[in-house]
Write a structure and sequence with these properties.
By secondary structure, the chain is an all-alpha fold. It contains 17 helices and no strands. The protein is about 70% helix and about 0% strand.
Amino acid sequence: MTIDRRKLLLFGSAAALRFFLFSAFPLLPDLLTGRAEISTPVTSFKRCMPAPLFLSLFALIPSQLFSLVTALLYILADLLCAQSVIQIAESGVARSSRLFTSPRKGIKWDSVAVGAAYLFNPFTIATCLARPTSVFSNCAILYTIASAVNRRPAKSMLALAFAAYLSLYPALLLPPLILLCHDESIAAEHPKTSITASASKLTSFFIGSLSWFMIMSYLLTGQSWEFLHSTYGVHFLLPDLTPNVGLWWYFFIEMFDSFRQFFLGVFWLHLLGYVGGLCVRLRKQPLFVLTTLIGLFAIFQPYPSISDASLYFAFLPLYSHIFPLMRYAFFAVATILYTTLLGPAFYYLWIYAGSGNANFFYAITLVWSLGLSIVVGECLFAVLRDEWELERPEMKGKDVRRI
């Protein structure tokens, strides 16, 4: 068995950097845990709300070793995420799938460089230090997609069920994931099955796996289903309006109670509406559908954080071949950097200095969402332009105008 020295160096340096920050700045994790940009009511390390299994896991750690063990656990989770990203990059599915091969497939980042972009992303490092439970959700999502592109559909469905068990919204990734698993199964020259048969089989496995996690939680909580309201009910009903980088909290603070249920339904239907449209329009590229949905979740889910943005940014280097087709990349990057620097300042002015109000922080979160929206929109435009130029090669390099 050969050892990739570059990958070993990458993982070693990333782990060493994180362990150094945990050890040299012991107060930093608790400081970051309280940041609204990183920890949310459903992912905060102090609350540990996502699932009863997490409470059982952390309860097993001896109190005298708690800080060390949790630091190592989160470092390991980051390394597993990077390994999954590298496997996705090595598969080449982002550039060439069963139904589509990009005319720019020769433009690509090395898989180790893609892993390095994830591991040394400041958002990723800050998330690891803050120890939100979203790290494990991201790890499960990345392992889900890595298993799918490596033609292991059963593992993919099991990992997706675990991600949905932790965070709920990953369940919306099921339709494009089924398409990806189906395409990879046919590409592997397995006995051809219809998309309906594949969808039925994979959906059944997903539901069965998710049911098993639910039953385990039911048993761990003393045979009670109350944990459903305390965990998933928070996502659906939004009882905690703690400020975060999302769009929901301020809107529902200002909302009259008589309209609350209606707009909760509207917001969730808005998020759900992207799934079908993207799966139909981008049927040839299911991996990009997954990537786009993850980006939209980072904007429109009830309790987003920079952890969700870091997950989306992990996929962008896979599509380096479409970077030349983007029109407003500089504006998007500048907007994200602008909000990254000013967001903490505006939050401080509101909460600590008392010289501002909620509008200060909500305004900067709107700009943050705008920046992410531009990135998602630019990637969509570039991929559609890439497909169009394959269909009409004579239009390559020419301007496109909307009429």
